[in-house]
């Protein structure tokens, strides 16, 4: 009996949605997909794949949280609180833009998609948990993704297009 219960619980966990639970986007809604397997970010809007670009993610498996989140904060030339570096300063590791999301019960000020003052880091796994982008790609995304945009962070072998279809952002 215990084996059967364990098996059933394993199936439930395996086929449960990604945590935290949240409403998937609907066709046409802006939707960001960050795939930690490939270190790529895809942006879907108006039922089209608008961009797919390399990013940097967490240096260890758990640093960049996985789940379905919501963009809650946007800032131009963000201030780097950790080391008291003003926005716009070349030493600021956040670059020119910040798009914070509500991972792990935060308010969008801890985890985010942002620029970098180390452009060679893009494509690598070496951040403290955020997602880094090249300046041009970041500023394009910032201008097109409104507050409230859903962000899926996942580790998957599926293509961005398949993930966007699975999560309802693209029509099959």
TrEMBL record:
<dbReference type="GO" id="GO:0008360">
    <property type="term" value="P:regulation of cell shape"/>
</dbReference>
<dbReference type="GO" id="GO:0071555">
    <property type="term" value="P:cell wall organization"/>
</dbReference>
<feature type="active site" description="Proton donor/acceptor">
    <location>
        <position position="114"/>
    </location>
</feature>
<dbReference type="InterPro" id="IPR005490">
    <property type="entry name" value="LD_TPept_cat_dom"/>
</dbReference>
<keyword id="KW-0378">Hydrolase</keyword>
<keyword id="KW-0133">Cell shape</keyword>
<comment type="pathway">
    <text>Cell wall biogenesis; peptidoglycan biosynthesis.</text>
</comment>
<feature type="domain" description="L,D-TPase catalytic">
    <location>
        <begin position="30"/>
        <end position="154"/>
    </location>
</feature>
<dbReference type="GO" id="GO:0016740">
    <property type="term" value="F:transferase activity"/>
</dbReference>
<keyword id="KW-0573">Peptidoglycan synthesis</keyword>
<dbReference type="InterPro" id="IPR038063">
    <property type="entry name" value="Transpep_catalytic_dom"/>
</dbReference>
<dbReference type="Pfam" id="PF03734">
    <property type="entry name" value="YkuD"/>
</dbReference>
<protein>
    <submittedName>
        <fullName>Transpeptidase</fullName>
    </submittedName>
</protein>
<keyword id="KW-0808">Transferase</keyword>
<dbReference type="GO" id="GO:0005576">
    <property type="term" value="C:extracellular region"/>
</dbReference>
<comment type="similarity">
    <text>Belongs to the YkuD family.</text>
</comment>
<dbReference type="InterPro" id="IPR050979">
    <property type="entry name" value="LD-transpeptidase"/>
</dbReference>
<keyword id="KW-0961">Cell wall biogenesis/degradation</keyword>
<feature type="active site" description="Nucleophile">
    <location>
        <position position="130"/>
    </location>
</feature>
<dbReference type="GO" id="GO:0071972">
    <property type="term" value="F:peptidoglycan L,D-transpeptidase activity"/>
</dbReference>
<dbReference type="GO" id="GO:0018104">
    <property type="term" value="P:peptidoglycan-protein cross-linking"/>
</dbReference>
<comment type="pathway">
    <text>Glycan biosynthesis.</text>
</comment>
């Amino acid at each position: 009996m215990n084996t059967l219960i364990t098996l059933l619980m394993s199936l439930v966990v395996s086929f449960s949605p990604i945590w935290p639970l949240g409403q998937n986007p609907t066709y046409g809604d802006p939707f960001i997909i960050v795939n930690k397997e490939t270190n790529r970010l895809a942006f879907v809007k108006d039922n089209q794949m608008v961009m797919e670009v390399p990013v940097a993610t967490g240096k260890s498996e758990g640093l960049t949280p996985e789940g379905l989140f919501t963009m809650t904060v946007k800032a131009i030339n963000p201030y780097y609180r950790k080391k008291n570096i003003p926005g716009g300063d070349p030493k600021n590791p956040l670059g020119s833009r910040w798009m914070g999301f509500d991972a792990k019960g935060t308010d969008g000020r801890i985890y985010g998609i942002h620029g970098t003052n180390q452009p060679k880091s893009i494509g690598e796994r070496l951040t403290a948990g955020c997602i880094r982008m090249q300046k041009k790609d970041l500023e394009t995304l910032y201008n097109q993704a409104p507050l409230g945009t859903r962000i899926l962070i996942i580790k998957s072998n599926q293509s961005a297009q398949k993930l966007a279809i699975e999560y309802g952002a693209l029509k099959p």
